[in-house]
Specification:
3 helices; mainly alpha; 111 residues
């Protein structure tokens, strides 16, 4: 038996795999990473407000540079950074696999 091919000539199994990775990346991001990262961000903002650091402006959280920050604050920032990085990775995987799928599909378009 020959494996079926899409109109673009790529193996249908690879096309399905690319779309599956795209979907899984979006689902993981939407259901876990985005809500978790947002909750952590709100926790960081609440802690900054509690320490009176809400008016400080910079590239990173004032908790990172403040002498008032505790070890718990630093753990919170680390957890946020890890979750945010994983969320961005899921987005990149999703966009990359969807883009690859679209590229392969577009190879045999005829106008």
């Amino acid at each position: 038996l020959r494996s079926s091919t899409l109109s673009s000539g790529i193996n249908a199994e690879y096309g399905g795999l690319m779309l599956s990775y795209c979907l899984l990346g979006n689902v993981a991001n939407s259901l876990y990473f985005i809500p978790t990262t947002t909750r952590l961000m709100y926790d960081i903002h609440a802690r900054e407000n509690a320490l009176g650091l809400e008016d400080e402006v910079g590239q990173t959280s004032p908790l990172k540079r403040s002498d008032k920050a505790t070890d718990e604050d630093k753990k919170l920032l680390k957890k946020f950074n890890i979750n945010h990085g994983l969320s961005m990775l899921m987005s990149l995987i999703s966009m990359g696999t969807c883009g690859a799928y679209l590229y392969f599909i577009s190879q045999n378009l005829k106008f």
